[in-house]
Amino acid sequence: MTLFRNPRDRIPVLLFLIVFALDLTVYFTARSWWLPILWLALWVIPKGWICAWNHHHQHVPTFRHALPNRLLDVVFGFQTGVTSHAWFLHHVLGHHRNYLDQEKDEARWKRRDGTPMGEVEFSVINTLVAYPRAFRVGLAHPRVLPVFLGMGALQVALLGLLFWHDAYNALWVFLLPMAVSLYVTVWATYFHHVGLDATEHTAASYNIVHRGYNLMTGNLGYHTAHHARHGVHWSQLPELHAQLAHDIPASLYRQPGIPFVWSNPEAQLELAPEGVEALALRSPTART
């Protein structure tokens, strides 16, 4: 019996474990005040990409069994600031069910008066309320809430041990990167949906089809496809997007952010008809 649900997860998980091992190495060996700070700065963007993979893991668990999934949750928790089942409650059981209704959406981009929030406003507010909203969703899912609370307590206890051993290194290698990564996760969500009042999945998300961006984020740029069928494995999203390409408005595309694009990152794009057709041709049915 294989450990992984999908063999394509093997290399990503290996890379995440290597990153975690490097974090631990810096934590246990750094004696200079500047090295942990430099480490934080160097890994801000890569850990932002890891946030996307934690997101995929919460939708489709990486392993077939609970124990390795929970162990990976702990690793992801230290890398992304999102602990076990927090994203599952807030995002899968919350945002995905409610994102078409801005009065209910756990990641809502509208103010109470109906106007869109600014980028920083959205990111700060939704970062601060992420865990309370996850808990609130958990109250309606009593089978999930104990796992969320128990694993959260374990994560805090492990972080406490790290602070007890070396508070300075724990601050810069773990706690601050966790906070920054959580903020980056929320910030990225802003560009997925802001300004899109829609009743259909095909008109409610922006997409990024940049190859490098999707390589690093596990195809998170195919966001319409992800919302249309959020139980699909990340490796299948390009094909699903191809099937939907003709139904997605050509204006619902964006450039990727830094470091992929340095001029007008996250800018809205409108694909030419040939660009839409090229995406649609990726579908097996379009090639037969």
UniProtKB/TrEMBL annotation:
Residues 32-251 form the Fatty acid desaturase domain. Signal peptide: none annotated. It holds the Pfam family FA_desaturase. InterPro entries: FA_desaturase_dom. The chain crosses the membrane at residues 12-30, 144-164, 170-191. It comes from the Bacteria. Keywords: Membrane, Transmembrane, Transmembrane helix. This is Fatty acid desaturase.
